[in-house]
Batch of 4 targets.
Target 1
Amino acid sequence: MKFSPLFWPIQLKGNIIYILDETLLPHKLSYIKVRNYKEACRAIKEMKTRAVGQVLLVMYIFLQLIKQNKQRDLLKVARAINSTRPTLSFKYLTDMVIGWSKGKASLEKCILGFLEGLKYSRMKQAEEASKLLKDGDAILTHCNVSGLMPLIGEFAKKQGKRISFFATETRPYLQGSRLTAWELQRAGLGVTIITDGMVAAVMSQHKVNKVIVGADHLTLNGDIANKIGTYQIAITAKYFKIPFYVLCPPASGLKRGRDIKIEIRPDKEMLEYQGLRLAPKVAKGYYPAFDVTPAKLITKHIHLEIKR
């Protein structure tokens, strides 16, 4: 099975964590060296890694602590991780590690076992998604799901299905045009980039017939939080009777979507791009990084089953 570099973008070599810098893609495949938890937390805040990369990084932070003989700092590090990005529920991960540390089994073995299970579960999630597709399907996706879209395409090929993708740009960070399109074309899958505002027109022209997106947060009632713009795509898909599938993480302890704290990122991230000002200096910006899609708009949740 071939994997995109984004499928597993974090590595631990010796005492140093290597993070694939997603902000440099597709122009440069480069890794950041991280020597301690503070540098790792900064990488999360600055979106150097995102989606599953953040989950992996959390676990590798704790493995790094073990290798540095600093297990006494577990609680302090857990608090630092939990404060990085409010919408992404890292607490279930940090609570899990703290719980393991109090047991009889080796904490390192527990973390490595979790990571191995996560890799297997992600593959199963992609395979399940591929079974929902038909030969000739054109799938609309928004943002980036860390290597799962090309994996879905590979499973579909093995099932004798030819599929293609439409990727929204996903402004302002352009994860769709920079990351999703890049990894899909590397996998030999057809991909067409559209702006975020073209979704309704593309659906009305019958150019796509399925939607698959990821989710950064799943609540107990099935609501999800995902990259800003997902909610309006779900509403539009409902109007055009297009199935809307979500690749979900494990559910958090929150009851419903309105309980999710939405991260508001600095407005300069949408007013500037790579140092270039895109708007008048007097203009203000508002950048909620996520929105909430109600469960009633979701055709099927494709769950990531992780043993806790």
Note: The two ends are 26 Å apart (CA to CA).
Target 2
Amino acid sequence: MEEKLFWIGILMGAHLFLSHHFRDKGRFKTDSGFARAWHAVFAALVSFTAAVLLSVSLDNRRGDVVTTMLFSGRQLAYGVLAAAAGACWVYFRGRVKKPEIKDGVHPFIKEDMEWSETIFSAVLLASVVMYLFVQAFKIPSGSMERTFLVGDHLFVNKFVYGFRIPYTKTKLLKFRQVKRGDIVVFQFPSNDPREFQCGGSQYGKDFIKRVVGMPGDTVEVKDGKLFVNGAAAGDEPYTQYLDNVRYPKASGKIAAGDYQVFWENRMLGKMFSEYIRDNFGPVIVPQGSYLVMGDNRDRSCDSRYWGPVPEANIKGKAWFTYWPPSRVGFPK
């Protein structure tokens, strides 16, 4: 969302700059066709922005958001239709209602410039805050129950692991490293929109899971219980197990080296489906990556199925649940 807001802010900034330029050239001193047309352009921008952001919000609620794509074709189509409708309505309305020119500037244009400046400043500031500092996130599934419930809204601390340089995976000024037990929001580790995992394409989507394996750790799941570096993970009060029956191990004939390769290439879920839920590994977490799992261990599509999460894909740490009011607080 932050990149979408940034480019909308830039669009409004361009309109504001051109409005000042045309005003200085004296293009808005009369109720000319140009003044009405420029007023229609502003209406088109506002209508386009409103339609696109509404479409994005609805897609977010349905879980269809793809963070690697600025706008989908459907979102742009809605925006263009709304822009055309808004521009036509304002242009022909202006031809019927003749405004009174004051202070040498068309009143509609003066008001448009004030709104452009307000929207430009607010949207650009919001995009910077969301990109660098804090972002809102909605829990899309039950994989983190009981820590988070479906529909919970929370803030994600995006600067704790470093400030990301826009359109790169480079981070600066890391305040702390990712730790075992951190609940992280990350972009799903896939570069192919055609790749299917967990029942569909997860390309570009944001996930939330808990870090259970650090770089270099040997991680294994035996009969549903987590083992790290040969030892049981110990007390995990945040976990939840819903099934009384455990799936048997289904990968005994695969060499350890091949198993590691299949896991790193996100193949285990496709090869063994649910049979790796309760008996998984052992695998070694690659350097620069993490193994993540959902707290709802029997209902989580996580690293057991689709491999490690590179550090560059991690966007931030779950910070504070702000909705619903009954669940406000800091997650553990």
Note: The chain has two domains: 2-132, 134-327.
Target 3
Amino acid sequence: MHANIEVIEDGQNRGGGTAGKDSQPTLISHVQAEIVPKETAITISTEQAGRFILASNVLDADKLSNEDVLLEYKAQQSTERGFRFLKDPLFFTSTVFLNSRKRVAPLAMIMGLCLLVCSLGQRALRQSLKRGTQTIQNQLGKPTATPTLGWVFQCFMSIHLLTFACLKQISNLSEQRCWILQFFGAPCGKYYLLC
């Protein structure tokens, strides 16, 4: 909402060049207004957008209040980013259908473990890059020392293990992929037959 609207005339501008006998000067002005917040609309929007569920196994409110739970949650930014990573269409999580309610908790446990493994893998990669003061390319082809593991997974799509006459070979293992693999160490490299 706005209030105190005022039109201020700055003067006249005849334009550049020589003015013709029929030309009219152009009046230049600007509008000045004060913005007044509409509190009821802000309150309604805040109430609609500000609802989400946080759960804790600490039931004693004296030990952990609702405000403390919220502060702890907000302090863990990687948590929400991690679950966004799990909900990415690349991982087909939305296509999982469970016939029984008993299977929801085990699926949540598996997803939590997947998130833990991904977080540890991303941390290990970033620490390895930091130790060697090295970088890898991001989605835009620019060097980064803080890549996401989701991006690294996308880099490794379309790699295949070929077995022919008892010989194993990895296809599509480019220089960029080999460069990334060295930061994960030898245990990871053995899966790509690099050790």
Note: The mean pLDDT is 81.
Target 4
Amino acid sequence: MAPVDRLTPLLQRFRVRTQLFHAGPLCGVTTFPAEPGRGFLHVLRRGEMELTVTDERGIPERVQITRPSLLFFPRPSDHAFLNAPTEESDFTCATLDFDGGATHPLVQALPSVIILPLDEVATLGPALDLLFSEVDNVRCGHPILADRLFEVVLIQLLRWMLDNPAHLALNQSLLSGLADQRLSPALVAVHEAPGESWTLQTMARAANMSRSAFASRFKDVVGQTPVDYLTEWRLTIAQGDLRAGTPVSTVAAELGYTSASAFSRAFAQRLGRSPRAWLAADSGGIPTGDVSRASDSTRM
């Protein structure tokens, strides 16, 4: 089977923007509060530290980091570093701002924190070497280039995760589906062309599987039915398009709905209100359970 680009269709529609904000030692206790729509990518280049991270139940957990490691926080999560005041410690840190905030597909699919020793992820080496070289030698265009290099590190990390799902013990999710050689062609096809007239049959054909085998495997690996995933993908795209000012009728047509009313019904069934009512609440800052609007104020 020919290799499939599992990341580009996803990241072209839902960008992740990285911004370097620290390079060098950290002393004492450094805290990173959770902010809607924002994640963090830290690289411990040298030294040791203690990490305290608050899980999704609000329970703090302590982790001792004794090797150079990458710490990836894709979702808003309170965390803190405690390390001795020594020049031997060395960190490089960036914020991650996700288009769509909490609705970004990767935010929903990834664990709350991933800690990987650098020597276990050999493919990160060249990208990190370039990043460290730029961080250590400040020249013209340094902030812009450092930000771009952090994006390269992130993409290399996501590639590694897709190629090594067993190492991370991923739960049922989109990432697990993209890591599955049988399912990934169908997922990529849906990501590339959400407005196609997809059916269970056509999705199964993209995966070169029978309908029953495809439906069963998809539910086992991704955690939802193919039709439910298709609907969720379309409506996630729709939220971004509506925020950008695209008319409801245009969004409906581009996402494969037979009419604006059919789209509005599907939208209301999933999000609890019509597209226009949802957009009015979202634009006005009225709490609706969708934290993605708050991320707009934190984007650099």
Note: Residues 208 and 296 are 41 Å apart (CA to CA).
